Amino acid sequence: MDFNWKTFITALGLAFVIEGLPYFLFAERMPKILAMLAERPPSFLRGMGLMAMIIGLAVLLVVRA
User: Confidence band (pLDDT; 50, 70, 90) for 65?
Assistant: First the structure.
């Protein structure tokens, strides 16, 4: 099994685009949102991260099936 670097770099680039969207679209509100997230307990942030990963995996499974 060969590692497909082109697909990996494409996925990495897409991740950067998606991560940058909120900062571009909501630049004025992002400091307040980040401050609000900083006040949340780590368990809440881990839960959000876990849900994001599960949703991402579900999308990949649906698209790749």
Answer: confident
